[in-house]
Amino acid sequence: MRIALLALLGLAFGALSGAALGISAGLAWIQIFKTSNFEGYSGMLVFFTFMPLGAVIGGIGGALLFAVIAIRDAETAIEPEPVPRLDR
């Protein structure tokens, strides 16, 4: 259950950060390639293409990252065997 919750948390954080990076990449694309701003074309390009792509990629990446971290933590969270005491 904890792994699933961490994966959902990673999905949310990844989607938000991916959308922000997508907007940044879209704005860089507009500046580098001198995209036309006729009737808001450049804004639509950024917010209907780059932002959703960034959100999807970031969401999948964040969910996978958090799930892998949770799975590895679950593997190492096994109780150690008690150390036998040597009473002398």
Task: Report on the architecture of this protein.
The chain is mostly helical and 88 residues long. 77% of the residues lie in helices and 0% in strands. The chain has two helices and no strands. Helix 1 packs antiparallel against helix 2. The longest helix is centred in the middle third of the chain and has 36 residues, at 41-76. It is rod-shaped and about 85 Å long.
Short description:
This protein has 88 residues and is mostly helical. The protein is built from two helices and no strands.
List the helices and strands and how they pair.
Layout: H1 2-33, H2 41-76
Helix pairs in contact: 1-2
Radius of gyration: 22 Å
Uncertain spans: none
Approximately how much helix is present in the residues?
over 70%
User: How many helices in DSSP terms?
Assistant: 2
Strand content is: under 5%
What's the N-to-C terminus distance?
A: 46 Å
- What's the β-strand tally? 0
The gross shape turns out to be rod-shaped
Task: Please name the defining characteristics of this protein.
mainly alpha; 88 residues; 0% strand; rod-shaped
